[in-house]
């Protein structure tokens, strides 16, 4: 039996893909419960979103920029197991904060950092799909950052069901609030193309740079498996 376009239920909100369980907090809580258990039992830090190559690509880019200092404040949005911040700490960066809406992910990240004897990273539970207001009582959301990094969190928001549009708009506003006026936002996505991301974030951000990612060729067309962009507040 073949499915029609209507049967697939592609949402009419700018997405050309359907929602998924990866857009739910329950999915990530359960995933990190398993990873925390595995870490305690066998020392496995768990999955690195988009793989180590993608993570290393961002770290190398940050480390090579002449206008980025090791003392610049960095926020890792959706830090997961926190390994990216650990690697940044090894490169000499000293003002590091990781947030995730899953308390289990934050516990895993803290455990891994402690085992590596890295005490310079601050981890906090925070949901970037909830508005940041003057009443927000969260240390991680009460400061400004020179660099915000997202490696898959906006993708997870993009996979939400009916809450996607509102969560997307809140997320964009929150990132803008957390960045210094001259700061940069590094976003990596496998769901969205460069053009789509620039359109989605156009209300609050402008394009600054591409971070080159692996390409593939299909039907004479060249594309990217992953999109990685550097944006600045507008």
TrEMBL record:
Gene3D superfamilies listed in its UniProt record: Vaccinia Virus protein VP39 (3.40.50.150)
One Pfam family this sequence matches: Methyltransf_31
Keyword check for Magnesium: no
Enzyme class: transferase
InterPro entries named among the record's database cross-references: Efm4/METTL10 (IPR026635), Methyltranfer_dom (IPR025714), SAM-dependent_MTases_sf (IPR029063)
GO biological process, one term: methylation
Keywords, alphabetical: Cytoplasm, Methyltransferase, S-adenosyl-L-methionine, Transferase
Main location per the UniProt record: cytoplasm
Superkingdom of origin organism: Eukaryota
EC number(s) stated in the UniProt entry for this protein: 2.1.1.-
Domain Methyltransferase positions: 72-209
GO cellular component, one term: cytoplasm
GO molecular function: protein-lysine N-methyltransferase activity
Cellular localisation: Cytoplasm
Family the entry assigns: Belongs to the class I-like SAM-binding methyltransferase superfamily. EFM4 family.
Function: S-adenosyl-L-methionine-dependent protein-lysine N-methyltransferase that methylates elongation factor 1-alpha.
Protein's UniProt name: Protein-lysine N-methyltransferase SNE40_014667
Species for this entry: Patella caerulea (Rayed Mediterranean limpet)
